[in-house]
Amino acid sequence: MKLHSYRYLPFLFLSVLLFSCKAAREVRYLKYDEKTGATFHSVKEAAAVRIQPDDILAITVNKPGPATVVNDFNLPLQPSATTYGSTSVAYDMGLGRQTYLVAPDGTIQFPTLGRINVAGYTPQDLAYFFQDTLRNFIKDAPAIVTVRLMNFKISFSGEINSKGQMTIDKDNINILEAIAKAGDLTLYGKRDDIQLIRTYPDGTTEIHKIDISKADIIESPYYYLRQNDHIYVPPTFRRAYGASMSGTTVNWVITGLTTFLSVFSTSLYLYDRLK
């Protein structure tokens, strides 16, 4: 019986299809059982960003009525921005409140109240603390206190489209939101082996593995990020192997594979004809 080379086409098509399916699985996020569905609950305690030494805080005290009542509880104003005109003369663009640097012992020097321990508070809880404390000083109306963490920054490296540092303008952010703001991972980034590098207030640094290819990442204690977190996205094997090869080597590999496939196809054709 003759051997027909076209009989190998289904096997070739099947190989390409399997490879394509594998590649699609590698770049997918939040995989779960689609037949049964899935429900996950995030860890609320992990979402809370807590103040720690070396943090920079913006704390402002306000109240209805004359502003002079709360002046004793705010830092002095300072120029918030400066620009230069065509005559090289500086123009003040406005005034802003100064910020507080949290000391290594977790305290700040607050006007009138003195030194206060703020480490371990969330910004919202610290605002409540000041509101309760200031009731003893401001009698006629409750104070309105706002607390903002000014150094809530995270950074990215590796296989991600926008590397570098990012400033977060809200109280919390999760890993998926941060990746989206950074332009998403490249096609060569490992979804199942993202490395979160986190430094704790006691000075220790730990590396935690994050797998965003599975939906249960939502329940991970590292789903929500903290200030100064660094996210490293390792390359896939194909990316790392390709990067380790020079351009000449890649060309030789491609040429060799092309030659092999050509010889193999020609041999099958000639064998079929001779039979």
Give the SSE map:
Layout: H1 9-26, H2 44-47, E1 56-62, E2 77-79, E3 82-84, E4 90-92, E5 95-97, E6 100-101, E7 107-110, E8 114-117, H3 123-133, E9 144-149, E10 153-158, E11 164-167, H4 175-181, E12 194-199, E13 205-210, E14 230-233, H5 237-244, H6 247-274
Parallel strand pairs: 10-14
Antiparallel strand pairs: 1-6, 1-9, 2-5, 3-4, 7-8, 10-11, 12-13, 12-14
**Strand elements, count:** 14
Cα shape: elongated
Task: Bin the strand percentage.
Answer: 15-25%
Question: Share of helix among residues?
Answer: 25-40%
**CATH hierarchy class name of the domain at 152-238:** Alpha Beta
Which spans have pLDDT < 50 for at least 5 consecutive residues? Answer: 9-24
**Looking at CATH, which topology of the domain at 152-238 would you report?**
Outer membrane lipoprotein wza fold like
CATH architecture call of the domain at 152-238: Roll
Name the helix and strand elements from N-terminus to C-terminus, one letter apiece: HHEEEEEEEEHEEEHEEEHH
What would CATH call the homologous superfamily of the domain at 152-238?
Outer membrane lipoprotein wza domain like
The largest sheet, given as strand count, sense and whether it forms a barrel, is: 5 strands, mixed
Total count of helical runs of at least 4 residues: 6
Radius of gyration: 30 Å
Look at the structure and give the mean pLDDT: 79
The CA-CA distance between the termini, in Å, is 8 Å
Strand line-up of the largest beta sheet: 11-10-14-12-13
